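Example S7 (structure tokens).
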């Protein structure tokens, strides 16, 4: 299990431990901790939260694949948009489970995935593909290198002043880039920009943000 909420992990661990055919063999709060577990321990399925504080849990999918992980990944999250769900399915997750569902349904979902009875949500994935190919052009506009740097700062919870200091530019210039990102992403607030970043610019976040603001 990879989830930054310890109480949730403990509750799910107790739930799964009560099942004769399931065993929790490792827990982590970050992508890095999850990767260490799959490197050293055989794992059939990973329960992955995609909202790990300021860390994007979806990065685990590609990183685990690069490590040779051949098991399944079930995303267990509080909420996910159609666009984000489709991209997660495209990137290899076996399914998506919402935390507000009944616990027994999680057990059934895990068993279905392990037996192959639970096929990926093709309808959602196809609707996302259609949207990406024929829909909102703004969502597909690439970011400039400077926009990517500023977006990484916003995504990591930094203020305009902190971003300006990090990049060695003026605070007013950073503010201008943030407003530019608002327009490009079609949002009005930093919180909405963070959400849009996860949904639309996950590749830039994975490739450009890791370790840059620590």
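Recovered sequence:
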């Amino acid at each position: 299990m990879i989830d930054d909420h310890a109480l949730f992990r403990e509750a799910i661990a107790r739930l799964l431990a009560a099942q004769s055919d399931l065993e929790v063999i490792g827990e982590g709060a970050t992508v890095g901790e999850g990767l260490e577990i799959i490197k050293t321990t055989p794992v059939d399925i990973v329960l992955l939260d995609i909202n790990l504080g300021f860390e994007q849990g979806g990065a685990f999918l590609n990183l685990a694949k690069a490590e040779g992980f051949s098991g399944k990944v079930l995303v267990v999250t509080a909420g996910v948009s159609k666009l984000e769900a489709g991209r997660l399915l495209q990137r290899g997750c076996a399914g998506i489970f919402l935390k507000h569902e009944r616990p027994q349904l999680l057990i059934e979902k895990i068993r279905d995935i392990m037996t192959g009875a639970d096929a990926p949500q093709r309808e959602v994935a196809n609707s996302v593909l259609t949207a990406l190919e024929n829909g909102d052009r703004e969502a597909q506009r690439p970011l400039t290198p400077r926009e990517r740097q500023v977006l990484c700062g916003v995504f990591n919870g930094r203020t305009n002043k902190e971003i300006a200091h990090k990049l060695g530019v003026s605070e007013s210039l950073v503010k201008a880039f943030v407003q530019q990102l608002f327009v490009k992403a079609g949002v009005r607030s930093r919180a909405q920009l963070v959400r849009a970043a996860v949904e639309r610019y996950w590749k830039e976040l994975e490739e450009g943000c890791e370790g840059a603001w620590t």
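Notes on this example. The mean pLDDT is 81.
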